[in-house]
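Quick look at the format.
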Amino acid sequence: MGIIGVHLDRKATLPAAEAVIADVEAAGAPAHFFNVNAADDDKRALVCARARELLGGRPLRVLMHSLAFGTLRPFVGSDPAEQTSKAQLEMTLDVMAHSLVYWVQDLYAAGLLGRDSRVFAMTSAGGRRVWPAYGAVSAAKAALESHVRQLAVELGTAGVAVNALRAGVTDTPALRKIPGAETLLAEARRRNPGGRLTTPEDVAAAVAVLALPGAGWITGNVIGVDGGEDVTA
């Protein structure tokens, strides 16, 4: 598949995005990447318009929503300046959860989601578990899963499948920003029946399988991609 990517990188991290582009092109597929804020309304409209040109009116096969940007502060603290503010809570839910709805709305309106399109959103066990300073992100993941169920019902007659993927603990730059990340990683290694952490490749393999023809009847679910890690908690 060709890839239309939306990412937000400064000069220091841009080589990682460029490496992905090179990998896609080396596999013989086109890659069109946009270094813009995926949570910005105007930028989303720009990408959707360009995607329509690139696809010539054909629908997307896969929409992968994976935005990890939010506040990591406690809700309540001895110092009010260090606790989650209203603006931070609203921003976290808007970026990590509500933006899925806005992308689906715009892509559907542009004719870019249709029969046999697949929509995936990345959630985590943190959507129903408590971890210090994770409250805002946890709320966003819970909202994201609710949005997935709603979208699956509303897009059912259009033949668009919508699912959330609940990856196990994965050693990524986003996870490393969570306070106590080393404890999370160690506990996941200990608890996982497979004896290891989940990898990005595990998640990619699940997406590839769920994007195959014939898998469109799988919709409205939170699908664990964790080697059984969640059931051992």
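Next, a different chain entirely:
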Amino acid sequence: MSEGRHGAALAIRVTPRARKNEIVEIMADQTIKIRLTAPPVEGKANDALIEFIARVLEVPRAKVAIVAGANGRDKLVSILDLSPSEAQARIVKHLKG
């Protein structure tokens, strides 16, 4: 996660076609590993990722965008109007259930 004046950037590794949508772990390099039920076709996994991240972080969908890696497993996701520390706190809270 990187600091920014107007939002947060999250490094995310996506595994599509999973049994359920879930955050698996925060890896050593701070990449967030996420499993999604959606298949990686026609942008379905990307849409599912945006929806899932918005729900976990409790922000409107419009505040979440994939800014790099739309066609791969490793993505950079921008969240507007949410500090990196708050984003991290919400992800950790979600992980702990």
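The chain has a mean pLDDT of 93.

See the schema section for token definitions.
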